[in-house]
From TrEMBL:
Function as written in the Swiss-Prot or TrEMBL entry: Involved in DNA repair and RecF pathway recombination.
CC per GO annotation: bacterial nucleoid
Annotated ranges, domain DNA replication/recombination mediator RecO N-terminal: 1-68
Keywords: DNA damage, DNA recombination, DNA repair
Designated name of the protein: DNA repair protein RecO
One Pfam family this sequence matches: RecO_C
């Protein structure tokens, strides 16, 4: 199986003396593992960091075998974030979540586009934490577990939606949910539309919301925890007063 595709590097690990195995998120062919000859060299290492944009020339005997790839870097990649440790923690978290959530060899172009949008947002310190929440919501939708935030699950109204059912992922209005407020998840306004601004605690509520459903529908069925890089990112955002 051969193809050439745009991709982001999600991770790289040493394999043998000079090679590495990379995990790629490709635009048209999903998440792919590939051996990169010479990937351990000083010349190649900068292009194999999580978040690096590449064009991958992929080759494999069959779809089930570990393929090999030649990678051509595109742009400056994550090096632009080296002076922003908080953004780097977000990048590591995004790569870990994508790698853990997406099944291998299954096309998910929506996930690629969401990751691409998030990579662009990391240059905007005040914006990217909210875009991270949208990225995770997009992953859930692309995997078939999208949140239904269009109307209240109880009354059908489209107004005053402030909670989400932790069981169904459907929005609940203030009035309908008031008796069950302690059992519902907060729904930050920015997840309902681009026009809404960010309020205090909105990013934290959004991460709690997407994290709940990632754990329930994606990681728990795999008997795996939420990636530690995501937990680390949330800790650092809290320390920085960004939740």
């Amino acid at each position: 199986m051969d193809f050439t595709d745009d991709a982001f590097v999600l991770s790289a690990r040493a394999h043998g003396d000079t090679g590495v195995v990379v995990e790629l998120l490709t635009e048209g062919h999903g998440r792919r593992a590939a051996y990169v000859a010479g990937g351990a060299s000083r010349k190649m290492k900068p292009f194999l960091q999580p978040g690096a944009r590449v064009v991958a020339d992929y080759r494999a005997r069959t779809s089930e075998h570990l393929g090999s790839a030649r990678l051509e870097p595109v742009g400056e990649g994550p090096s632009a974030l080296f002076d922003d440790p908080l953004a780097l923690t977000g990048l590591a978290a995004a790569a870990s979540v994508a790698q853990g959530a997406l099944p291998e060899r299954e096309p998910h172009p929506g996930a690629f586009l969401a990751f691409e949008a998030l990579m662009s947002a990391f240059a905007l310190p005040e914006v990217w934490p909210a875009i991270f929440v949208r990225f995770e919501a997009g992953l859930l939708e692309d995997l078939g577990f999208g949140l239904d935030l269009s109307r209240c699950a109880v009354t059908g109204t489209m107004d005053d939606l402030i909670w989400v059912s932790p069981r169904t992922g459907r929005a609940v209005s203030r009035e309908a949910g008031r008796p069950y407020a302690d059992k519902l998840l907060n729904l930050p306004a920015f997840m309902l539309g681009a026009q809404a601004g960010l309020g205090e605690g909105d990013v934290g509520s959004g991460l709690t919301l997407t994290g709940h459903f990632l754990e329930q529908f994606v990681f728990h069925p795999q008997n795996r925890p939420i990636p530690s890089a995501r937990v680390w990112m949330i800790d650092k955002l809290g320390e920085a007063g960004r939740l």
